[in-house]
Specification:
The protein has 90 residues and is mainly alpha-helical. The chain is 40% helix and 8% strand. The chain is globular and about 30 Å long.
Length: 90
């Protein structure tokens, strides 16, 4: 279940993989920020607001996308992140 007004499929489009970044680990919108890093910050007690302050380019939906991605992995659902294209490079 995702916050009202948010579609999981749309949120997951924010999660990409790029073999050139972190060995192909899931990242946020082609940037050098791994999903696992965001999840680690949340697990350590950081709020979404704190994370967004530290990464001004991020949006609340990026944090939600990380949570949806993690929930699907834990639920053993198939998750296939989009491969970033060169035009999406930061």
């Amino acid at each position: 279940m995702v916050a009202p007004g948010h579609d999981e499929t749309e949120l997951l489009k924010r999660i990409t993989v790029d073999p050139q970044i972190f060995g192909g680990k899931p990242i946020i919108r082609g940037r050098r920020l791994a999903v696992e890093h965001v999840l680690g910050m949340l697990a350590a007690g950081d709020t979404s607001e704190t994370i967004l302050e530290g990464y001004p380019w991020m949006e609340r939906e990026d944090v939600l996308a990380c949570l949806v991605y993690a929930r699907r992995l834990v639920g053993h659902e198939r998750v296939e992140p989009r491969v970033a294209t060169e035009s999406e490079a930061p």
